[in-house]
Write a structure and sequence with these properties.
CATH class of the largest domain: Alpha Beta
Low-confidence stretches: none
Largest sheet: 5 strands, antiparallel
Structural class: alpha+beta
CATH superfamily of the largest domain: FAD/NAD-linked reductase, C-terminal dimerisation domain
Mean pLDDT: 94
Strand content: 25-35%
CATH topology of the largest domain: Enolase-like, domain 1
Oligomer: single chain
Strand order of the largest sheet: 7-8-11-10-9
Order of helices and strands: EEEHEEEHEEEEEHH
CATH architecture of the largest domain: 2-Layer Sandwich
Number of domains: 3
Number of strands: 11
Radius of gyration: 20 Å
Amino acid sequence: LQRLTGTGAVSGAVLSDGRELDVDFVIAGVGIAPATALAEAAGVALNNGIAVDAQGRTSDPHIWAAGDCTSFPYQGGRIRLESVPNAIDQAEVVAENIMGAGKDYIAKPWFWSDQYDVKLQIAGLNTGYTDVVSRIGAGQTASFWYYRDGALLAVDAMNDPRAYMIGKRLIEAGKTADPAMVADPETDLKPLLKA
């Protein structure tokens, strides 16, 4: 992204290769490189951050790590989550493991951001989605439900805390939601939790 265009509201995005995109709204996410210098100096393995096992142990069995700087096993792969909830939850499990608990950390990704008059809440990760269902409400209320082959992966909700909470609970319970019901803004989503 080189710059945004528009008068009074964003209407376009100019990319560094010269392409111009028409847009209705923009969400900008800016990441940082994980701080791994100390781990590298200690000789522990790095992989998109400090590589840890499911319990938070590095390649050196006497060194543990948690938080935004770590990458860990997740759903058959490896991820690094830059979020406050992940940093807290993972650190609590790793602290218990240092004391001998032997528990695996199971990430339940969720995020939030307040952007002026829009509250963005995200549950799950949409990586690998095959379908997106839009649920457009009144005003600036909307949610986008991401599915992979019929299974609910993630929900992005804007000014729609009810959709976010229901989506989060469904994802954490390993349940899905009928896309036709989700797409209809008149459908009450709460009964989906009982299905």
